[in-house]
Specification:
Blueprint lengths: L2 H24 L6 E6 L2 E7 L2 H4 L6 H13 L7 E7 L3 H10 L3 E6 L13 H4 L7 E3 L4 H16 L3
Helix pairs in contact: 1-6, 3-4
């Protein structure tokens, strides 16, 4: 596959992840959306539900991985790509390692808790028993704006 073809595919799926992020925003959640794709088919998708579910682990990535596992009837998710609108945190990256995904594509950087490149760089620092490809910055402006606007509004004086 040509790089340009893969870029178009990444944009296609990231647009869908951004749509899920907007759904999260509509229900008062932090606007993050994630999708798990296998053979160009959606097998798991979710938005953040930590606030609604009173569950600190209900990140979009974790919920999407759970749905994909249920779909495949397997806790391992080989040959899958996860698309997420924001750079994942350490918990979500750890789950991706355990799930044995093949590829991670994310949108905007997360300067406070991002664990791929922003802060911890945990995939580089530790010798995990599973490695996967990482591509960041896909539709980063759109994803970043959603998060910034959410927190700006949340912190604005009332």
């Amino acid at each position: 596959m040509k790089d340009n073809d893969q870029t178009n595919i990444d944009i296609f799926w990231m647009e869908k992840a951004l749509s899920l992020a907007k759904t999260a925003l509509d229900v008062g959640e932090i606007p993050i959306g994630s999708l798990v794709i296998k053979d160009q088919k959606l097998i798991g998708g979710a938005c953040n539900l930590s606030i609604s579910n009173s569950d600190p682990t209900a990140h979009a990535e974790i919920l999407a991985l759970r749905k994909a596992g249920e779909y495949l009837k397997n806790y391992r998710l080989p040959d899958t790509t996860i698309y997420t609108t924001i750079e994942p945190c350490t918990m979500c990256l750890g789950a991706m390692v355990h799930a044995r995904i093949s590829r991670l594509v994310y949108g905007a950087l997360e300067p406070k808790t991002g664990a791929v490149v922003s802060n911890f760089k945990i995939l580089e620092k530790f010798d995990y028993n599973h490695k996967f490809q990482v591509k960041g910055g896909v539709m980063a402006d759109e994803a970043g704006k959603l998060i910034k606007d959410f927190f700006r509004k949340k912190r604005a004086p009332r």
